[in-house]
Amino acid sequence: MRRSSVEIAVGVFVVIGILCVGYLTIRLGEVNWFGDDTYSIFGRFESVSGLKAGASVEIAGIPVGKIHAITLDHERQMAMVEMKISNDVAITDDVIAAVKTSGLIGDKFVKLTPGGSADMLKPGDVIVDTESALDIEELVSKYVFGKV
To answer: Are the C-beta atoms of 51 and 68 separated by less than 8 Å?
Structure first.
């Protein structure tokens, strides 16, 4: 009797451990089981050097979304950035998207600066006003070779 109660306690402990690991896997993997609470908008940039999928999208320094994918627009030879924005955030159609650098390490993110329009972007719309990432190497080479 005593041996079977110890085995039951160990079994319950193992099951609880497996459930905890499963829960952490789902939470840390950001898996959404009941639908997505974001919508996609796109931005067309001349250069997104250093920007990676998973980077933050911010308005006024507050994260409102993440970069989902970065692809090449073959027609215009420009970078297309897909941004997943939280459903509770409305973006105006005259927003300006800029690739910025945070901190000393140089992590890139997209900063959205809202305009004054009353019209909102719909899922799948493209931001037309964008600012590409600042290329420090290009600036230094222009300065060194006297083309400033």
So the answer is: no
- On the 0-12 / 13-18 / 19+ scale of CB atoms within 10 A, 100 is middle
* pLDDT tens digits, 37-71: 889 999 999 888 888 998 999 999 899 999 999 99
pTM: 0.71
Model pLDDT for residues 69-125, shown as the tens digit of each residue: 999 988 989 999 999 999 899 898 889 999 988 876 778 899 999 888 888 888 889
| Whether residues 65 and 117 fall in one domain | yes
CA distance 60 to 68: 20
| Same-domain check for residues 26 and 42 | no
Q: Are residues 109 and 67 in the same domain?
A: yes
Range of the domain at 77: 38-134
Question: Given the structure tokens 């899922």, which residue do they identify?
Answer: 123
d(CA 67, CA 110): 8
Say whether both 128 and 96 belong to one domain.
yes
Mark whether 14 and 42 lie in a shared domain: no
